[in-house]
Specification:
With 483 residues, the protein is α+β, with helices and mostly antiparallel strands. Helices cover 30% and strands 27% of the residues. The strands form six sheets. A six-stranded mixed β-sheet has the order 1-2-6-3-7-21. It has a five-stranded antiparallel β-sheet with strand order 16-17-18-9-19, covered by helices on one side. A four-stranded antiparallel β-sheet has the order 4-5-23-22. α1 (10-20) packs across α3 (114-128), α5 (227-242) crosses α7 (314-326) and α9 (407-420) crosses α11 (466-482).
Length: 483
């Protein structure tokens, strides 16, 4: 049975609920791609797909508006797939389970995918309607926005014709975005040797969970806990004081999500077990107190496990833990030009065992100043290089420089005032958007980005405020009517 179709606007929520049933992890968008192609065919609309997988569905203007400028409605197909550790889900095949919680729509134990499923739903609702007034539109759905901006990178010149683009991928109703940060990833690979477990040893697993996580662009300034930093802090203390031997460490998942959970397995001399338990109790109380405002639901667990087959060599362990401890995380600089805008930040995103005797550390840097992006990248790289890691960087993506004289911005502001009787907030965003890459291929584009209110995106606490979807929808339709 439908859960969301009684919400307003019905046409948007009905399609959004359909989208939640279609698996669409980043880089695995085949099923949602086919959904879009079938959607275009169902309504007899010109539909095409490029080599990388981007889909464009076009629709002529309604009677009397055929000669209006073409408007591109842009959203991305993929979603960040995060689940709580007690939730069993196969994101490649299973649907998301949305539910209504008061004034919000959430998902049961997983990310909701409103980023950017709600943008897709709005564009598709316009394509499906024969009652709305609008000029010619082109709905562009891109692939792999969340993990590589691949669709935007590979977008070819001439794929669409419009010179006005409305990006439907922002998360604050009443705010219109005209700029965003650029970003780059820094990856550090630690090669390690193993050794046999010392005699008279016991093995334990320590874990941290219950953190909020969230978008590493939108929420990096909130002082949220980073599970990788927290668990490293405990492991380094145990290494220095009790000589623990690390067997495994695992924390975080996505480069653009603040890590919520982490665990480590280690051995310790049996004679130190009482001291270990005391240290754990003290540490968990200390961190809980430090983060009591930002992370009231943080949880710690220490449990005895079977002895592992081997442990990491002492020198390798110390270098890696010290590098993780020293690696910066959070806001590095605030903008001097725009009030309350994070200019530069970095996220210690994930720590994973890969291959044979290798640990991969993934970090992500953002900045609205290109030189600042490269500066923080080198700062992070330097920490890991000094520890002997092999460091690589992604290609990165450009920022989107604000244009306060934008014509579509002026029309969008006037539209918001006409509907709601107040001015919207116009600002830049620290998160990355595809708009900067579009400008490289289509330098004449005039763009804004806007959307309903979403919170805790990229985490299982992701939610979308119901009333703001109607407000955003009305704003979008009014822009299209009066453009």
């Amino acid at each position: 049975m439908s859960v969301l179709s009684n919400l307003e606007p019905t046409e948007v929520w009905t399609i959004f609920e359909e989208i939640t049933k279609v698996p669409r992890p980043s880089k695995k968008e085949e099923k949602i791609m086919q959904y879009l192609l079938d959607f275009g065919a169902k309504y007899g609309l010109p539909t095409k797909r490029d080599e990388i997988g981007n889909v464009l569905i076009s629709k002529a203007g309604t009677p009397g508006m055929e000669d209006k400028p073409i408007v591109v409605l842009q959203s991305h197909m993929d979603m960040v797939c995060e689940a709580n550790s007690d939730v069993e889900i196969d994101f490649d095949n299973d649907p998301i389970t949305p539910y209504i919680d008061g004034e919000w729509v959430k998902a049961k134990g997983t990310t909701l995918g409103a980023d950017d499923g709600i943008g897709m739903a709005a564009a598709l609702a316009i394509l499906a309607s024969d009652k709305l007034e609008h000029g010619p539109i082109e709905c562009l759905f891109t692939v792999d926005e969340e993990t590589g901006l691949t669709g935007a990178f590979e977008l070819q010149e001439g794929f669409f014709k419009g010179k006005i683009l409305l990006n439907l991928d922002s998360e604050d109703e009443g705010e219109i975005f005209i700029g965003c940060a650029g970003g780059i990833d820094t990856l550090a690979t630690f090669n390690y040797k193993t050794k046999k477990i010392p005699k008279k040893s016991s093995a334990y697993k320590v874990s941290v969970s219950g953190l909020k996580g969230g978008h590493s662009g939108d929420e990096i300034h909130k002082g949220l806990g980073n599970s990788n930093k927290i668990i490293t802090r405990f492991l380094l203390k145990l290494t220095e004081e009790y000589g623990i031997k690390l067997a495994k460490i695992d924390g975080g998942n996505k480069r653009n999500a603040i890590p919520r959970e982490a665990y480590a397995e280690f051995t310790i001399k049996t004679k130190y077990i009482d001291e270990l338990k005391k240290e754990f109790d003290c540490f968990s109380k200390t961190i809980s107190k430090e983060l009591k405002i930002a992370e009231p639901d943080i949880k710690f667990k220490l449990e005895e496990i079977d002895l592992p087959d081997s442990v990491i060599k002492k020198s390798n362990q110390k270098k890696m833990l010290r590098a993780l401890y020293a690696c910066p995380h959070g806001v590095h600089a605030w903008s001097k030009a725009v009030d309350d805008l994070v200019e530069t930040s970095t996220n210690l995103a994930s720590v994973k065992h890969v291959g044979t005797n290798q640990i991969l550390v993934v970090t992500s840097q953002r900045s609205s100043v290109d030189s600042g992006k490269h500066d923080i990248r080198e700062m992070v790289a330097s920490v890991f290089k000094l520890a002997g890691a092999i460091v690589n960087h992604s290609d990165g993506y450009p920022g989107w420089e604000p244009n306060p004289d934008s014509e579509i911005l002026k029309k969008s502001v006037a539209s918001y005032e006409r509907i709601f009787g107040k001015k919207p907030v116009v600002r830049a965003i620290h998160a990355g958007l595809e708009c900067g890459l579009f400008l490289e291929k289509y330098p004449d584009l005039d763009m804004i980005s806007f959307g309903p209110t979403l919170r805790a995106v990229h985490s299982p606490d992701e939610k979308i405020e119901i009333k703001t979807v109607k407000m955003w929808w009305d704003h979008l339709l009014d822009i299209l009517k009066h453009i």
